[in-house]
Amino acid sequence: MIESHVHLYTDNGMTVELQISVVEDSGAGIKRVALVDRDGIEFYIEDRLGQNCPSEFTFETRGIPNTRFPIFVRAHDCDDNWFENEPIPLQPRAPIEVGGPGIQRGCSPLICEEPSPNCITALTDLEGVRRQITLLCAEIAALIRRRNAYLIASITLLIASVVCFVLAAVGAAIPFIGQGAVALLLVAGAVLLAASIAMGVAAAVVQGQIADKERELGQLQGQFLDHVALVHQNCCVPCVSNDLSLPTCG
């Protein structure tokens, strides 16, 4: 019994390069191997194997035009039994099946075809996650602006309260300034200090919201990378126009 295993090396869209292994497992050995095209023409012949009758013979073919497919592997053992495999067509991005009827074609922008349903699903999911990341980045940017505004307000109020306390201390040391003015400065300083603390607390609360959103962003970016992997599994990437780079909020 003779079996053949066909593997694709290169595919430029017009011709292919194959590696073919022929195996004889009954002990008779291999005498002759030929490749036959769709018109029954033998275009590769190796007929010197009968000297050694090897149990396995591997060879490479270069520049087989796509128009010759489907092709057949025809082999004879040293007992003059012969074998011819099932027709081998070119099946773009078909699952690899060693010794099976199809050859997986390489992915090339020269042979772009309509994307498969799995590819379309992977690209749709990818763009869905990208939109979520874009919206989340806008939310984070808005929160950062709010936090910064609270921080600026807190610092400004703190400086004003310090000024009030300093003026109150200076006024208390000057005999001609009334105690009422000093008291007003102390009260104003205390109010400004309380307002500064309130703004600082508000900034801290918003910072916590930013941290939550950034954790959510990290999870979405992880999902995005998972979908990129699915795109690589199901699509011919050189034929994909979608941006596969990881979106950030930079």
Please give the structural blueprint.
Layout: E1 2-11, E2 15-24, E3 30-36, E4 42-46, E5 56-65, E6 72-77, E7 82-84, E8 90-92, E9 103-105, H1 117-173, H2 179-234
Parallel strand pairs: 8-9
Antiparallel strand pairs: 1-2, 2-5, 3-4, 3-6, 6-7
Helix pairs in contact: 1-2
Mind explaining what this structure looks like?
There is one protein chain. Helix content is 45%, strand content 23%. By secondary structure, it is of the alpha+beta class. It has a four-stranded antiparallel beta sheet with strand order 4-3-6-7, with no helix packed on it. A three-stranded antiparallel beta sheet has the order 1-2-5, with no helix packed on it. The longest helix is centred in the middle third of the chain and has 57 residues, at 117-173. It is rod-shaped. Mean pLDDT is 84; it is low at 93-101.
